[in-house]
Amino acid sequence: MVLADLGRKLNAALSSLNRAPVVDEKVLDALLKEVCAALLESDVNVKLVASLRQKVKAKVKASFEGGADKGKETNRKTVVQKAIFDELVQLVDPGVEPYKPKKGQPNVIMAVGLQGNGKTTTCTKLAVYYQKRGFKSCIVCADTFRAGAFDQTRQSATKAKVAYFGSYTETDPVAIAAQGVAKFKKERFDVIIVDTSGRHKQESELFQEMVQIGEAVKPNMTVLVLDASIGQAAEAQAHAFKDSADFGAIIVTKMDGHAKGGGAISAVAVTKTPIIFLGVGEHLHDLDKFAPQPFISKLLG
Ligand code: GDP
Asked: Which of 23, 30, 49, 120 is deepest in the core (most CB within 10 A)?
């Protein structure tokens, strides 16, 4: 089920509450069953869904017992709707503030992720995003593994009018990353984005390389670029990267496609790491800033 369908189903479940003459445990259970089924169909982790159900029930029960409903059905409905809304927000909010780049100093952002997830595209989108907001931005292509990676960076950075650094001859990604970051720091760039190699699988070699690049460029923030269309596999992938690269933020790409999105959402909870942007298309400006509450509000329409 794609994300828009999830929104529709959640919305339908919540509005069914308005038609119920009384809000009792039976009505709440039926509602939660619908909400949980919709989340599961969207690939949200089964444990997270079970925990959401339990938390909503506990909250509603405490509210009713505390007299928050004051016996009125409309109040009871509001209590239930708010509890579900808040728990949906909790699903995508690990309660951790992501790093915020500051002007007038170098902010090094390192992007990691498997090949094809949209890392190179996202690096350019990020550079454009910050450049538009007055940060002098640039990209360092430290991907020496994939033939054509530097060409891709060169083309998209040129199109985006963003400075870039890379090499056709140097084969050591750590050396390129270090040189590029040193050069751009000297030239007083505010946002320096380092694009690393992505392999097809979670190979140990890829992780070692990331760790070495990280040691060389000391990023202020490491971002995991995660493809929404990989479904439940997102969780395991995020786990593997967290163990070796310890990223501090997630960007979920391809949210415009037929992605279910729930797998990527679960990766937030599993790694306790915030999503900072969503990739919503192939173009340079197709990057939406992410915030938990507006995301759930929009999802519910
Ligand atoms: P990398 O191997 O991780 O660097 O991935 P690329 O940046 O080369 O992207 C792989 C493919 O995904 C390309 O065809 C991109 O245009 C596409 N892509 C990246 N981000 C998005 C997105 O947010 N939405 C859509 N629809 N496609 C995307």
From this structure: 120
